[in-house]
Amino acid sequence: MAALVIAEHDNQSLKAATLNAVAAALQCSPEVDVLVAGSAADGAASAAAQIAGVRKVIQVDAPSLADQLAEPLAAQILSIANGYSHILAPATANGKNVLPRVAAKLDVAQLSDITKVVSPDTFERPIYAGNAIATVQSADPVKVITVRTTGFDPVAASGGSAAVEKQAATEVSGKSSFVGRELTKSDRPELTAAKIIVSGGRGLGSGEKYQEIVVPLADKLGAALGASRAAVDAGYVPNDYQVGQTGKIVAPQLYIAVGISGAIQHLAGMKDSKVIVAINKDPEAPIFSVADYGLVADLNAAVPELTRSPKLIFTSVSGFGQTGPYSKRPAYDMVVQAMGGIMSLTGQPGGPPTRVGVSIGDLGAGLYAMIGTQAALLQRERTGKGERVDVAMHDCQAALLENSIARYEVDKKIPQPIGSRHPSITPFDVFKAKDGWMVVAAGNDMLFQRLCDILNLPNLKVDERFSTNPLRCPVLLK
User: Fold this and answer.
1) CA distance 226 to 200
2) What's residue 476's pLDDT?
3) Cα dihedral 325/329/335/340 (nearest 10)
4) ∠ CA 467-471-473 to the nearest 5 degrees?
5) Which of 247, 214, 242 is nearest to 228 (CA)?
6) CA-CA to 99 of 20 to 30 Å: which in 47, 147, 295, 375?
């Protein structure tokens, strides 16, 4: 039977955690459907339909589903549960709130926080704050599962073409209702999706010190802010900053722990980070056992010095930049090619938008990041000062279109696909030959004259209609 994934979304767009849950679901069943339950959630449903490997998207729109309350959402899941062998959701606050109710209503055991699918009925999950791994086998007809997102690489957000099936919402008793939501507003990356996190612990001593020491370093690195439970309990920062077993599970590219001793509950939430840097004055602090780099020092002196470091060069690459409406979207070459405009210029005239045959979005971002970093290194050599280099794939894609943009600024004509031709050079194309294909690229008038000599076409050489590139292009491009 098929697997059902409960999409994590904000009605307009999908959360990245959904991609990890789909990855787990595909290991349970080759047929995976996604449920997008919300209010005016066409944007999220459309995004779900593009996920690689998804068979079908079930969209249910109702005002009662706008805020993802457990009661109406669970009722909707239960109304279609009979058609599925597995029901999965990310192990986020929403997933942990809804799926226990679904499991109880189905009278099955819930499998929480799985990190590996051994077989369709056998799974691995961490226990004892991640210090041991339990293998769990379920004989229930429906497996209700929350997925630890750091345990599964996300599937591609594009490349799929699933059908979107709209269904009516299931009536609920209405015993619960949405009252309000208090969230910390920030332009920083969302904690569970951030590539860099700077977290502070009780060693900071106060909320003021957190703002004075941790925040400036995060600003310099473009990082998300986190904290240990001890710092949250002490009132240094709000609850949604908490990283750990009872907080948020994260796995960024870089995790910097400032004044965090490293209780096992905290380590359980961040030990899968790619690179961990620990700063603590206690050389015996447990945090150093998982750190890739450790600095035994007084954080009050070491961290401000690191923040002020005049020679620090930090390069970051993202899909759409660190701030703005698309900042939380993942970086995928196909999506960037489409949104950046290069697909609209590629392919044959009158044909559909066409992807460039290589990952030009990835390559372009890498190239510009390298150029920016090299320029920063040269600048540091001259001035002794470093700087931050921030590159977005989408921006780089636009930069690669500078030739087309320049032509548009001159003639105000929107560039169109013209195959292998050149808009201002003729002849410039691929031609069918007797034994294969031939490329001709006569880039200027002198080369055109030589081409006529090689082809033994003296009349063409002296024909005034073809004497210059501007004259040749309108004639031969028709």
Assistant:
1) 7
2) 53
3) 30
4) 120
5) 242
6) 47
Nearest Cα to Cα of residue 466 among 416, 412, 426: 426
* 193 CB burial (10 A radius; 0-12, 13-18, 19+): middle
Structure tokens at 218: 């995060």
- Cβ–Cβ contacts within 10 Å for residue 449, how many? 14
The structure tokens listed for 112 are 């929480």
For the chain, list the domains and their CATH numbers: 3-167 (3.40.50.620), 196-308 (3.40.50.1220), 313-411 (3.40.50.10540), 428-476 (no CATH)
**Which run of H or of E encompasses 408?**
helix 402-411
Question: How many residues does this entry show for the chain?
Answer: 478
The rounded distance, in Å, linking the Cα atoms of 105 and 123 is 22
pLDDT for residue 388? 82
In which residue are the tokens 């510009």 written?
Answer: 368
Chunk the chain into consecutive blocks of 10 residues (it has 478) and report each block's average pLDDT, rounded to whole numbers: 95 92 97 96 94 96 90 94 96 94 96 96 90 94 95 90 93 79 74 91 96 93 93 95 93 94 93 92 94 93 87 86 75 90 92 93 94 94 86 92 89 89 89 93 92 92 89 68
Q: Which amino acid is at 266?
A: H
Query: Model's pTM, two decimal places?
Result: 0.64
H/E segment holding residue 266: helix 264-270
The structure tokens listed for 87 are: 């029901």
35 strand-pairing partners: 6, 58
